[in-house]
Amino acid sequence: MIKDPIIFQTTHGSRAYGYEATVLADICDAVLEARKQDKLHYQQVHIAERCEALVRAFAKVGIIALVDEATGFQYDRPRRELEEQLKRFLSDSLRRWVRTFPSSYFQHLCRLRGVELRSDMKLPQYFGHLTNNLVYRRIAPGLLAQLKERKNERGSASNKLNQWLSLEVGVPELLLHLGMVIAVMKQHTDYEKFERALDQVAPIYPETPGLFDDPKDWEPR
Questions:
Q1: Second label for 53, Cα 20 to 30 Å away, from 91, 105, 121, 150?
Q2: CA dist 203 to 13, 87, 111, 186, 209, Å?
Q3: Residue-range domain boundaries for the chain
């Protein structure tokens, strides 16, 4: 299967190679079988350990998916877990000492918006609205509203939204998303085309419930 990949064209027009998702499970099985037969080199043992962890995770996800499908709970789960998910993203205390946004993000944002970049400049105020759209609305549903609420309740106007993210989950997810945003930025010279490309890989979460969502789960708590 690895020697016969699925060839496809990305939204940017470049040629790419893909594989069926189940190939990962097959690779894990092969590695674990090799370990069982003592055919792994000692430097490959750590690979088998990670494969074992993946297989266990696959099993847990699989049984949960089967039960959810049988009971219809897959339609109810996303909104029921929304509050708990947001708690993991948010921090109870303000982190004043962490600089989260890399300078390259603002450099590319200036370039795409046609703003002259100077070392002594103050970024345009509307960059905050752009960042809400490019970043916070795309990380998790309801995250932007919760960050603003936490800032209003416990912070001040000078506090940045990212300072209310948890170090365990919120900051790593933000950095991962920013890396993707910057990667898409580098491929474009036009802001609107960049935004459309970002919509393809990281669409904005809706602000209202979907067809199978319970509207009560979207109400502020």
A1: 91
A2: 19, 22, 22, 18, 16
A3: 6-75, 80-211
